[in-house]
Structure formats: structure tokens, C-alpha cells
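Notes from hallway chat w/ T.B., transcribed later so I don't forget. T.B. wanted the structure written out for a chain they're using in a teaching module, and asked if we could keep both sequence and C-alpha cells in one place. Agreed to drop them here.
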Amino acid sequence: RHISAMHSLCRACVGVLCCIAATGSASVLRTVVPHLLSVPRLDSATIANREITHSSSGDTLRAFIAEPESTEAVDSKLGPSRLPVLILLHEFWGLNQPIADKAQALASELGCICIAPDAFRGVSTSFVPRAIWLALTTPPERVDSDIEEWVRWAARQEKCNTRKLAVMGFCYGGSRALRYTTGTRPNAATVVWYGTPIDNPATLSKLRGPVCAIFGTEDLQIPQRKVDSFRAALGEAKVEHEVVSYYGAGHAFFKDMEQVRKEEMPVIAGWRLTTNFLRGYFKGEESFAYKRDFLEFMLAQEEAKESAQAEDSVQRQAE
């Protein structure tokens, strides 16, 4: 499916170039082609602000790391020197400024250390076929290993409390977040923004941490039947979860933090759901999903009691 989409996009791009060439405008062609084929390199001075060395391969790993801008949001039970850790995984564009902005906003609002790894190791792009290529050719096992290196790095830092670990991602990053927690860190909380869901209860049953997932009803990449299967599989696996689909929203509807500042729907609703979910998890509070499930359980018990009483009454009348 991904390869087919890649082919379609590439054919469309070639068609555009052919149209430009047909006009005889060589100057336009010379301007457009380098832009389409260019692969911008990350500027570590403005995006990635930390480098570490992979303990096994020796490769250089980069990430943008954000800390709270003040101590107001820090949980007093953990103390300002022991902050929970949030891993934030980028979309298939690579590590870019919108992800760095989200990381800083999350760190400041939640009072946590937010680490946004560069999964593509130095490459970002705004060209869709190139983004698809990066997502398809970057080995998932390598991404898992890189994330684990950053978690282990955080565990060695005095200010970090990796016992309170959450992994969150958007689109490509959402899929990678779910893969990482089910395969490597099942005790961590998982937040997925329109990432490809897993509908295998056996795989999801590995999770010990809660899951929060956000989708759009008009997402052509992830239709609602897949979201429904994901929700059902989480329930069957007995994983605490909150899965929401916002009406009318398509894929990748959360572009940047300006949408949060303007309180655009459904971005602001998803942002508040995410931050409330993570805040409660970091503080060890009972989540909304847990409370909802308990109330539904009590309601079912009450209904069963009333049904039994009604049957007993009918039997007594018959006698």
C-alpha cells in the first residue's frame, strides 16, 4: 500500500515537471527541480540541541530536549530534580521546528523532560515522496534501539525519573511509539496521534501502561473501522485506554502550536485530552478511562441486579 502511494506521488510530481518543461520555461525548471530534489539537513544549533553516542554501534544520535520553563508545573511529589520523561516522536517529515515547539510546550505544561529524537539521523524534508521514502527505508529496529538509547541516557541524568516514562508520537511517530512500548517498554504510557494502530490483542496485552489515542473521522489513511478494531483490541487485552475520533478531522490535523494558542478545534480538544492524560499518569492519579470503566461496571452491576429482581417478582406473581 505504501509503495503504491509512493508511485502515485512520484508520477504526479513527474507530471508537474513535464508540464513546466512543456512551457519552455527553462528558468522555472531550473528553480523548481533543485527545490523538489533537495533534502535539507538538520541544523543542530536550531533543532537538535543534544548529541550522544550509541552504546553499541557508536553512531551519533541527536535529539531536541526540552525542559520546563518554570517550576510551577513540576509535581511536588517528585521534586524539581526528578522530572518524568516524555519521548516525543516526529512525523515522517523528520525532526523539525513544529516538533521542537510541541516538545517545549509539553515540557513546560507538564513539568517533564521532553526528548524528541531524530529518528532519521540528520535528514528532514518537506517533500512528500522523500518523506515516504524516509519512513519506508528507516529500519524500525534501529528506531527502537535509538529510542532506548535516549531512555537509558535519561536514566543516568539526576533530574530525570524514567520510572515515569511516556512515549508519544504523531503519524509515523505514533506508529513507532506503539511499536516501542509494546516491544521494549510496556510499563510506559503511550500517546498516539493518528498513527497506524495495532489490532492484535495478543500484542497489545504486553502493555502495562495506559494508552491515549487520537484520530479523525475523515482520515483516509486510518479509516474508522481500524480505529474501532484498535479500541476493541485494547479492551480485549484489558489495557487502560482512551481512544477518541474527532468528527470531520482528517489525517495530520495538528500542524503546529499556533493552533493550540488560537484554540482551534479539534486540535485544542486533543491537546487538552493529551495533557490531562499525561499529567494524571505522571502524578499517579486515576485516569478518566479508569473512572469511566468503573462507572460502567457499576452500572452493569446495577442493571443485572434490577433484572434479577424483576425476574424474581414475575416468578412470585406466577406462583
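Follow-up for T.B.: Residues 5-45 have pLDDT under 50 and may be disordered. Might be a good example for the class.
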